[in-house]
Amino acid sequence: MVLAAGEGTRLRPLTGTMPKPMCPVANVPLLTRTLRMLAVQGITEIAVNLYHRPEIIRESLGTGASLGVTLHYSDESTLMGTAGGVKRLESFLADDSFLILYGDNLYRFDYAPILDFHRKSASLATIATFTAPNPSACGLVVTDENGIVTRFQEKPPPEEVFTDQANAGVYILEPDVFSLIPPDTICDFGKDIFPELLRRYPGRMAATAMNGYLQDTGTIPSYRQANWDILEGVAGPAESGIHPGARVAHSATLHGRNVLGDRVIIGEECQLYECILWDNVVVGPGAILRNCILGRNVRIGAAARIEDGAVIADNVHIPDGTEVPANARISV
In terms of pTM, does the model score above 0.70? Predict the structure, then answer.
């Protein structure tokens, strides 16, 4: 199951009209990248929970056939939390060990070693971890020498950090875990279910390092980093950031890394410095864009300046000669 119901509040205004897992990373929706990764590894029956702008996910992915998977959707009228959302899919998931992934992470990893560790440890739940560069900003997982979880630390102050292994948002669970999740109740794995599992079944929860790549995309800086990692080959084979359907005038200049979506048009004498432009953006002649992110259907007028860190949501039109200040957030 891929958890995809969040509202993406930290990515606003981009997520005002777009569910967070469908935000394009180097021109491919994040959820599409996750489903492709799972399909390659033989995981083809996948549940996805929906809440914010669910119609976009349904219309874009449909049954999942184009990606080689079969999708099972669960619509939430109220956000149920990570565990509450999984509980709603109990009838789909409860016949075997099952894999949970967070839909707002860009992943590239092999699940088989995690599953092998899970089965050898005879655990009810196994958490994949990654090495956190800033442990105080993460939910940490403390284990013994055999990988058995002994405690959790949720964003501890630096002087209280006991490990740099953080929760990667990848779990393998046994159906028995459903007995700990109350029905029709908002609850989370990290805050509610895992601490209770640790209390009731000591020694039955394990953690192992995820051998692969992980990048959160839930904030503007982390979303930007995910795009650069795709372009630079950090998250797998390097990809071009320029969609074949984009058009760039000969006199325009692209400085550094840039992502241009389908039907993007860059006018004469434009200059772009490390920008991410979603589909159908038009940039008028002589405009200068610096380190900004533009949503779908944005229009930038001639000789406009979009300064460092600005984020402009879908369907916004910036008039000729306008200067958008650094770090501005603009929506319709």
Answer: yes
